[in-house]
Amino acid sequence: MSYTLQTDLVYAYTKCSQENNIQTLTKFFNCSILTHPVPFNSLLSGFVKNGNPLVALKTLSLMNVNGVPIDTYALCSSLTACCLIPSVGFGKQIHTHVVKSGWGSSVFIGSALVDFYSKSVAVVDAAKVFDEIPLKNTVCANALLSAYSDAKMWANGLELFRIMPGFNLCYDNWTFSVALSICAGLYAIELGSQVHAKVIRTICDAGTDVFLLSSLIDLYGKCGLVTKARQVFSMAAFADVVLWTSMLGVYGRNGHHKDVIRLFKKMLTKKVRPDGVAFVSVISACGHTGQVDLGTEYFESMARDFGLNPSPEHYGCLVDLFCRAGELENAWKVVDKMPNKASAGISVWGALLSACCDQGHVDLGKFAARRALELDPMNTGVYVLLSNMYAKCGLWDEIGDLRESMRDKGLKKDIGRSWIGVTV
C-alpha cells in the first residue's frame, strides 16, 4: 500500500463511528508498515476534531507501542484531546512523557500543557509549567491569563499582565480582552481605563474585534458607566449577537429596563438573531416594567420563531414577570407546565417565594421554599424570604422553628457589605 493511500485512509478512519474506531485503528496499526509520524498525526488530529478524544489518546498509545516516533504535533494534539476529558490523569501522563523525553523546552508543547491545565482548573500546575518554559510566547501567557480570569484569581492575572513585557511578550487582542475582563471582575475602572487607552494606542483593528469590544462594554457596564459602554457599542464596525447581548446586559444590570426592550426591538429590525442570553435580558426587563403581554410574547417566540428551547432561567424570568404583576396563578401555571419540573432552578422557586411573601400566600410560599431548599439546603436567602413571609402573616411560632433550624445547620443571615474604590 502506497504512502499516499495510507495517509488518505488514515484521514477516512477518523470519520468512522466511535464504536468501530478502536477495532479499525488496531487493524490499521497491525497491517501498516509505515513508521513516519505524519499519517498517524493526521489520524490523531482527525479524531480530536471529530469529537473522539479517547480514540485519539488510543492512537497515541498505539504509536508508542508500534515504534512510531511521537513528535511535537502528536503531543500537542493529544493534550488538546485531554482538554475534552473530565479526568486530568491522561494529561498528566503525557506531561510525564514530555519531561522524560526531553520535550519540556518546546514552547509549543509548553503552551499546550498550560492550556490543558488551565481548562482542567489546575491553575497552579498551569503557572508552574509556564514558569518552566525557557522561551515563552504570547500564546502560553494568554492561556495562563485566561485561567487566572476564569478562576477569579484577579491579582495573579494583573501581575502576569504587568510582567509580560519583561519576557519580551507583546500584548495582542486576546491579552487585552482578558485583562479587561479581570478589571471588570475587580470593578477597577481606573485600571480598566488605562488598559482601554493602551488598546487605542496599539490595536489598529479594535473596532472589528467582537471579543475585545464585548470586554470593554462589560467593564464599563459593571462599573455603572452606561454611556461609555454605549459609546463602545456604537464604535463597532459590525455588531454581532455577542455585542448586542453584552449591551442588553449592561442596560439590564444598571436598571435601564426600557432601554433593554428598545435595543432588543432594534436588534430584531437589524435581522440579528437573538440568543438565549438576550431573551433572559428582555423578558426580565418586561417584568421590571410591568409589560406582561410583551414579555409573554417574547418567551413564546423563542421556540416559535427562533427554534430555541427555553431553559430553567427563562422560565424563572417568566415566573418573575407574573409574580411582579401580582399574577400568582399564572406564575404557578408556568411552573406546572414546565416540560421537566425537576429542572426548575432555584431562581424559579425563589421568584415564586418572593411573590408569595409580598402577597401573603403562605401555603404556596412554603411549597416554593421547600422545593428551593431541596436544590440548595444551605441557601440563607430562602430562609430569610420564608421568615419575612411568616412575619408578614404574624406566624411567630413558625419563625421560631425556622431560626432554630438555621442554627442547627450553622446558617446565619448574610451581613451587608459595600466596596469603595479609592484612586490615589
Tell me about this structure.
Pfam families: E_motif, PPR, PPR_1, PPR_2. There is one protein chain. The protein is mostly helical and 424 residues long. Among the domains are: 103 residues; 101 residues, Serine Threonine Protein Phosphatase 5, Tetratricopeptide repeat (Alpha Horseshoe). Helix content is 71%, strand content 0%. The protein is built from 24 helices and no strands. The C terminus is likely disordered.
Helix and strand layout, with pairings?
Layout: H1 3-13, H2 18-31, H3 37-49, H4 53-65, H5 72-82, H6 89-101, H7 107-119, H8 123-132, H9 138-150, H10 154-163, H11 173-186, H12 189-202, H13 210-222, H14 226-234, H15 241-253, H16 257-269, H17 276-288, H18 292-306, H19 312-324, H20 328-336, H21 346-359, H22 362-375, H23 380-392, H24 396-408
Average pLDDT level = 86
What class do helices, strands and sheet pairing give? mainly alpha
Shape: globular
Q: How many H/I helical runs?
A: 24
Strand content: under 5%
* First-to-last CA distance: 73 Å
Largest sheet: none
Number of strands: 0
Order of helices and strands, N to C? HHHHHHHHHHHHHHHHHHHHHHHH
Task: Write down the Rg.
Answer: 27 Å
**Could you list the spans in which at least 5 consecutive residues all have pLDDT below 50?**
416-424
Helix content: over 70%
